[in-house]
UniProtKB/TrEMBL annotation:
It comes from Oreochromis niloticus. SUPFAM superfamilies: Heme oxygenase-like. This is heme oxygenase (biliverdin-producing). Residues 193-220 form a coiled coil. It holds the Pfam family Heme_oxygenase. It comes from the Eukaryota. The gene is HMOX2. It is an enzyme of class 1 (oxidoreductase). GO terms for biological process: heme catabolic process; heme oxidation; response to oxidative stress. Its EC number is 1.14.14.18.
Length: 309
């Protein structure tokens, strides 16, 4: 059973639809399976790993928002162009999904009212933008792959990233600078993603086109990876202004760290020791951690002195 609340592109204000058993040849399943490997690669880029740990340089975060602004401006321009196209119309959800206006507000917050003259589209972002325009104008069915890659991703990891950024960059709890991550018109990301998947599966597409869509989604991930790698390179030249909030990310969210798929994946990969080391280092960077460590060390020294007496 699936509900998505009030949707702007649905058959009525609240609509429900019987849960269908998904088949491997459904587009949503083909996309999920076909991008699994490249998703892992995207998660494992240094920029994304650092972000997840709360090691974010504000300058880089701002440049990331600039890259997103140009990407979504292109994507949403092409979506508007193709909103009545039978291969895209069922996925047209401007009120729920569109991000470029939220990003413009974020950029105004970070760069001030003159943000447009102070920002520009980077090389890697431009290549991504060019491909989105090419697809929208020459092969609109492939736009589905670009919309899927960004919007489903934003609805999946977005809330975690928002909390990490808010804490690391000490941004106001009222959400300024992070509007991109806030989907006000979506009450349940899970239900909306189900709706989006079922809409993708209802598109009348032959197998060859579905395969082309998977290839295009892999390309879309690669464009994102290029942008992350470019940011990583820029980061090497930008002065270190890391506000390291690595340790308390999950605690701050009031959640159970063991339920985080990334934590589990990283723990499995590292055997746990890397994470423990990271936690210890993060603790030592915080004043409270330093005091606790000093107290613990003094107590241990006292115990050794007593034993040797
Ligand atoms: C910061 C690292 C990332 C995190 C924390 C993250 C988080 C997640 C999670 C938890 C899911 C599963 C959601 C579910 O089962 O409903 C997911 C799915 C997804 N992610 Fe990511 N992700 C990350 C990076 C990316 C990137 C860089 C992209 C592409 C630009 C992306 C695109 C997607 C897509 C398209 C899905 C939907 C898969 C599907 O159900 O078909 N993710 N992500």
């Amino acid at each position: 059973m699936e509900t998505a609340g009030n949707v702007s592109n649905g058959a009525g204000p609240v609509y429900e639809q019987k849960e269908k058993t998904l088949r491997p040849e459904d587009l949503s399943e083909m996309l999920a399976a076909g991008t699994k490997q490249i998703h892992e690669k995207a998660e494992n880029t240094q920029f994304v790993k650092d972000f997840l740990r709360g090691r974010i340089r504000k300058e880089l975060f701002k440049l990331g928002a600039v890259a997103l602004y140009y990407t979504y401006t292109a994507l949403e321009e092409e979506i508007e162009r193709n909103k009545d196209h039978p291969h895209f119309a069922p996925l047209y959800f401007p009120a729920e999904l569109h991000r470029h206006e939220a990003l413009a507000r974020d950029l105004e917050y970070f760069y001030g009212p003159e943000w447009k003259s102070q920002t520009s589209c980077s090389k890697a972002t431009q290549q991504y933008v060019d491909r989105i325009h090419q697809v929208g104008q020459e092969d609109p069915v492939l736009l589905v792959a670009h919309a899927y890659t960004r919007y489903m991703g934003d609805l999946s990891g977005g809330q975690v990233l928002k909390k990490v950024a808010q804490r690391a960059l000490k941004l106001p709890p009222t959400g300024e600078g992070l509007e991109f991550y806030q989907f006000d018109a979506i009450h349940s990301a899970k239900a909306f993603k189900q709706l989006y998947r079922s809409r993708m599966n209802e598109l009348e597409l032959d197998m060859e086109t579905k395969k082309r869509l998977v290839d295009e989604a892999v390309k879309a991930f690669l464009f994102n990876i290029e942008v992350f790698e470019e940011l990583e390179e820029i980061g090497k030249t930008v002065q270190e202004d890391v506000l390291d909030a690595g340790m308390p990310v999950h605690g701050a969210m009031g959640g159970d760290i063991s339920k985080c798929p990334y934590y589990n994946a990283k723990m499995a990969a590292s055997g746990g020791t890397a994470y423990v080391r990271q936690l210890a280092m993060a603790a030592l960077r915080h004043p409270t951690g330093q005091v606790l460590f000093a107290t613990w060390f003094a107590a241990l020294a006292g115990l050794v002195a007593w034993y040797l007496m």
